[in-house]
Amino acid sequence: MIFPIGEPNTAYARYFIGNSYLAPISREQVNVSNVTFEPGCRNNWHIHKATKGGGQILVGVAGRGWYQEEGKPAQEILPGTVIHIPAGVKHWHGAAADSWFAHLAFEVPGENASNEWLEPVTDEEYDKLK
């Protein structure tokens, strides 16, 4: 891991199953954070909203994780994997059950951008992933 793990992600802990860590990398042109997940940790389903632009880009940097859009199969994320998430897409991301995982999260600038946190990813949904 070449980026800092950061501090426990207490501000967003209610939207995660398991423990995650947050390290701000840049706040200049766009917000970039390193998010590290312990094995089995994942965030709730959520939607990045914006009236124009917006969304998120994830870049895997360590370990093995998952990304899933509603209604689609989960995608494995490994170091170097790039995931483009347009505004308005319901999704979740997190670590594989047997691996720590870290990704850089880039906030795509947008007008009236916000984040809507939704229901947790159930153990039944998560346990189907291999």
From TrEMBL:
The keyword Lyase does not apply. InterPro entries: HNL-like_cupin (IPR047263), RmlC-like_jellyroll (IPR014710), RmlC_Cupin_sf (IPR011051). Keywords: Isomerase. Signal peptide: none annotated. GO terms for molecular function: isomerase activity. This is Predicted mannose-6-phosphate isomerase. It comes from Rikenella microfusus.
